[in-house]
Amino acid sequence: MRSLLLVLLAACVVFSTGCVTKKKHLQAAKESADRETALQDKVRGLEGKITELESSLAGEKKSGAEKAASLEATIAELQAKLDALEKDRAAIQAELAAMVKDKSALKGSVEDMQRALDELAKRKAESDARVAEFRKLIDRFKALIDAGKLKVKIVDGRMVVELATDVLFSSGSATLSADGIAAIQEVAKVLASIPGRKFQVEGHTDDVPIKTAQYASNWELASGRAITVVKTMVDAGLPGDRVSGASFGEQKPTASNKTPEGRASNRRIEIVVVPDLASLPGFDELNRAAAKP
User: Fold this and answer.
1) Cα–Cα distance between 184 and 25 in angstroms, integer?
2) Into how many domains does the chain fold?
3) C-alpha separations of 127 from 9, 133, 135, 156, 277 in Å
4) For the chain, what is the total number of helices (H) and then of strands (E)?
């Protein structure tokens, strides 16, 4: 472009000699050249800016792609975490459901256990009461026990006052001796002082057979002795509705009948403290069952 301006300037000089002076032509040429230079500077400046903008645009595109990729990676990571949380939530819900089920079962178990503990406590209280009653019975008969006239023991879960028939009766007889009458009267007074209790007098013999005009077998002998003791106790003041008699003959020995000592041990009168059924476990249920048609 600069060459073109010089040619034009030369043409003006040649063909327009009378229009302007040389000095003016030079001044105009210089101004044109300056304008060309300024214009070229502006062009270069614009080209530089265009290059810069193109570079910036390329950088922005690259940066945008990188940012997009980064966002996609972040989204993928968050989605993975969300999936893990959903999995944990499902596991927690399953665990919670199991806990609710276990809680219901545990509640039932606790209630069953509490009922069992209550029943155990009730039975323990009843057992403690029986032990206390047994100790009181021993205390009541302490003088007779110390004198060797009787024993107090537990037989088949029942409290029993045992007297040897050899002290009370002659062999093969159901008539009390004087010492026997005194002993039975003393026992009757102690039993009468125990409120709310009933008693059963049981006759026992050894296995030596007996057959007399009065007693055809040991059953009859044991029965006669039990009835004699019952009558003597009633005469001593024990109410008749609180005492009864029974016979076991030789059927319930406490020792071997092969020795004299064993046979002597088996010949006995047992006064049983009749259990109070109302205090036994299951009494209420038994009553309800009996009341049903």
Assistant:
1) 174
2) 1
3) 143, 10, 12, 15, 14
4) 8, 5
Could you give the CA distance from residue 289 to residue 104 in angstroms, rounded to a whole number? 32
Range list of β-strands (E), 89-204:
151-155, 158-164, 199-204
Half-sphere exposure of residue 257: CA atoms within 13 angstroms, side-chain side: 12
Residue 25 lies in a domain: no
Residue 189 clears pLDDT 60, i.e. is over it: yes
E-assigned strand segments in the chain: 151-155, 158-164, 199-204, 243-249, 268-273
Tell me the DSSP string of 72-104. HHHHHHHHHHHHHHHHHHHHHHHHHHHHHHHHH
Which one, of 180, 184, 139, 133, lies nearest residue 154 by Cα? 133
Residue 238 domain-assigned (yes or no): yes
Residue with tokens 């406590």: 121
Does some domain include residue 73? no
**CA distances from residue 195 to 185, 190, 244, 259 in whole angstroms, order as listed:** 18, 10, 17, 40
Do residues 242 and 198 make contact, with C-beta atoms less than 8 angstroms apart?
yes
H or E element in which residue 224 lies: helix 218-235
Q: Dig out the tokens for 269 from the structure.
A: 């009168």
CATH number of the domain where residue 135 is located: 3.30.1330.60
Q: 218 versus 103: which is more confidently predicted?
A: 218
**Residue 148 clears pLDDT 80, i.e. is over it:** yes
- Assess contact for 2 and 40: CB atoms under 8 A: no
The pLDDT assigned to 289 comes to: 64
Q: In what order do the strands lie in the sheet with 158-164?
A: 151-155, 158-164, 268-273, 199-204, 243-249
Judge contact between 160 and 152, C-beta under 8 A.
yes
The total of other beta-carbon atoms located within 10 Å of residue 124's CB is 10
